[in-house]
Write a structure and sequence with these properties.
Layout: H1 6-23, H2 34-47, H3 58-64, E1 79-91, E2 96-107, E3 111-122, E4 125-140, E5 143-154, E6 159-170, E7 174-183, E8 188-195, E9 198-199, E10 204-215, E11 227-239, E12 245-256, H4 258-266, E13 272-283
Antiparallel strand pairs: 1-2, 1-13, 2-3, 3-4, 4-5, 5-6, 6-7, 7-8, 8-10, 9-10, 10-11, 11-12, 12-13
């Protein structure tokens, strides 16, 4: 075999070196960090407000405060409210019975003038009637101290009393009243009352009521004995055609105790009194 010429050998060696270099992987291109730096500078520029927020001054703080003489309880306007909680009748023996219970006030948020009245008429004769005129001052949300005078017009001889106590809305929305009375001749009395409105629907409301009267001494002329005098319980179901007008049906039960019960027996009167009533409740 003849040896290859020197020129051919040199050409084959050059081709082999070029092939080995092509088989090696290409080196990764160098990273250009200038683009990342540009993005970071753009984000920083976006976070910087275009118009700087001015520093808070004392004038700004004063403008944010309410006036020093602002009324924290509300306005000083005069308002009024009147509620006839009971205007009802029942079938009495003899005749027809009629009873009323009403209250109201006029004044502002703190100071108010209150009035209250209740009574009964049977067969055209007034069995009981009284009226109170009270000054009330709010000492907590929905609570008032009250003081004033009470006049018992019936039964029999009228009586005058100094009246004082508190009234308001207890937790769970119970309306509560506790009133004390001091009259001529050392006569004293205490009346405790509570009622609650239980909503079956937005218009159908059940109202239970409880009231107790206690007396410090006998007053035979008016059929009153010392101690627990009477306890009255009631249950009335009303339908509110409007919030201001609601007819109702209900039951009422009253019981006399102790000396008061004895005085009623001596006068030929019943110690207990149960009745079915129908009436209306209105306010304005």
């Amino acid at each position: 075999m003849r040896p290859l010429p020197a020129f051919t050998v040199a050409l084959l060696v050059a081709i082999g070196c070029a092939g080995s270099k092509a088989a090696e992987p290409a080196a990764p291109p160098a990273m250009d960090h200038s683009q990342h730096a540009g993005h970071e500078q753009a984000d920083a520029a976006a976070d910087t407000p275009r118009t700087p927020v001015p520093a808070l001054t004392d004038a700004d703080r004063r403008a944010a405060q309410p006036p020093a003489m602002a009324h924290v309880h509300g306005d000083d306007a005069i308002h009024s409210y009147s509620l006839f909680n009971r205007l009802e009748s029942w079938d009495a023996d003899p005749g027809t019975g009629f009873a009323w219970e009403a209250e109201g006030w006029i004044g502002g948020d703190i100071h108010r003038l209150w009035w209250n009245t209740d009574g009964e008429r049977v067969a055209g004769h007034t069995e009981s009637a009284d009226v109170e005129l009270l000054y009330g001052r709010s000492f907590a949300p929905r609570w008032d101290w009250v003081v004033g005078v009470r006049q018992d017009i019936r039964p029999r001889e009228s009586r005058s009393f100094l009246a004082f106590g508190l009234q308001g809305l207890a937790p769970q929305w119970f309306e509560v009243s506790a009133m004390g009375y001091v009259g001529e001749g050392g006569r004293t009395a205490l009346r405790l009352a509570s009622e609650y409105s239980l909503l079956f629907t937005n218009r159908l409301v059940l109202q239970p009521v409880a009231e107790a009267a206690l007396y410090g001494k006998d007053d035979a002329a008016r059929g009153i004995g010392a101690g627990l005098g009477t306890l009255e319980l009631g249950l009335r179901l009303r339908y509110e055609f409007t919030r201001q007008f609601a007819p109702y049906l209900g039951v009422s039960w009253e019981r006399a105790f102790g000396d008061t019960a004895d005085l009623r027996r001596e006068a030929g009167e019943d110690v207990t009194d149960a009745r079915l009533v129908a009436g209306i409740r209105i306010w304005f």
